[in-house]
User: Fold this.
Amino acid sequence: MHIKKQPNPYSDHIKKEQDTLVLQYLPAVRALAYRLRERLPTSIDVNDLISIGTEEMIKLSRRYDREQNDSFWGFGRQRVHGSMLDYLRSLDVMSRANRRLMKVVDREIEKYLSTYEEEPTSEYLSKLLEESIEKIDDARNGSKVIALMPINEQITILSEEDTSEIVEKDELIEMIKTILNKFKEREQLIIQLYYFEELNLKEISAILDISESRISQIHKKLLKQIREELGLNDG
Assistant:
């Protein structure tokens, strides 16, 4: 004899609450995705970021305990942001071969910037490095993606070595702070606005009246100095 499963009102209520939470904070997920998208190459679709973030929100809603954390977005924002970064890490623009070209392209951009105070075109870099414009664009796009990652992770990616084998994470963070203290106050402010206030280059440029290229140059200078202090491969 088949016994029909009785609905569980409590379980249904919990599920409804969880779904309501997700719907309530979907605008926040969209805003986070668009905010991230402003700092990324045009080839990355914001809808992919929204989809990834929404999936993570659904998972989080199933684990959320109101008694332990009274703010669902406070509980979930960092994890949603992390899921979007995980998606970016998986993209081809961060492939090992592309990273090598990124470093070469970055060096040439820095040289050009020092002379002309603006970034060179991809056509110029293509001729100089004897690479296709498509590969140059991929390398430049990859740099934009990597620039969104935590600084210690950027160093590992660009050096192709695991920094955790050389220095502990906490030690690395202290080293970054020490190196930052050697920077001019204005340069420190740029790093603060980019990494901690999460402003994009255009916004920082408007606030400080400094070119986006110069901001990018300061960011690369920080990474280069950290790699040098760690004795990491920069070739």
